[in-house]
Amino acid sequence: MKKILFCLTLLTVSFGLVSCGQTKDGKEYSYAGVTINKNDFNNIQEYEEEARSLYTTITTFNPAKDGNEVINDIVENGNKLKTTINKDLNQKEKKENVQSVLLYENVSIIGIPKNAIKYSREITDTEMVLINQNFKALNDIEANKITTDKKSSEKIINELNDNIGIEVN
Q: Mean pLDDT, to the nearest integer, of 85-114?
C-alpha cells in the first residue's frame, strides 16, 4: 500500500512539474484573436498603453486651459511611443515611418498640438482627422511587425483602434 501511495505521489508531482513547465513555456498568447509569441504580446500591450495615453492627452487637450506642461507631456509620451514602436524596425523603417508620423512639425501627432499652443487655438477638425490617420498608420506599423498575414494584421489594427479610442471614419 505504501509503495502504491509513494508511486502515486511521485506520479502526481511529476505530472504537476511537466504541466507547469508546459504552461510556462508553451503558453499561447493572443491579441485580437491572433496567436502571437510572448515578446510580441508584451510589446503590443506596451504600445497600446502608451498610444492610448498619448491619444487621450491630445484629445482632451485645450490650449486655453493647458499650457506648456501638457505639450511637454505630449512630447514625452510621443518619444516613449516612438521608442516602443521602433523596437524590431530597421533604421530605414524608423526614419521613414515613425519619425514622420509622430514628430514631423506641422502634420504629426506631436506637431499639431504644438502648433495649437503656438498660435493659441483649438485643434481643428481637419487636424484631428490627421491625428487619427497618423495613429492608424502607427497601428499598421505595429501590427505588421507582428504578422505579415493581412487578415490577422487587420484584426490587430482594428483592436488597437478600438482599445486606444481612435475615431474610425
A: 75
144: in domain: yes
Q: How many helices (H) and strands (E) does the chain have?
A: 8, 2
Q: Which residue do the cell numbers 499561447 mark?
A: 28
Q: Please check whether residue 15 lies inside any domain of the structure.
A: no
CA distances from 66 to 50, 61, 63, 69 (A): 20, 7, 5, 7
Does residue 138 form part of some domain?
yes
What sections of 27-149 are H helices per DSSP?
38-59, 68-86, 91-93, 100-103, 111-118, 125-146
More confident call, 44 vs 103 = 44
In angstroms, the CA 59 to CA 165 distance is: 10
Q: Is residue 137 part of a domain?
A: yes
pLDDT tens digits for 20-42? 333 355 688 999 999 999 999 99
Q: What is the pLDDT of residue 42?
A: 95
> Buried b / exposed e across 106-142, counting CB within 10 Å, b at 16+?
ebbbbbbbbbbbeeeeebeeebeebbbebbbbbbbbb
In total, how many domains does the chain have? 1
For residue 135, give its domain range.
38-164
Grid cell for residue 25: 513555456
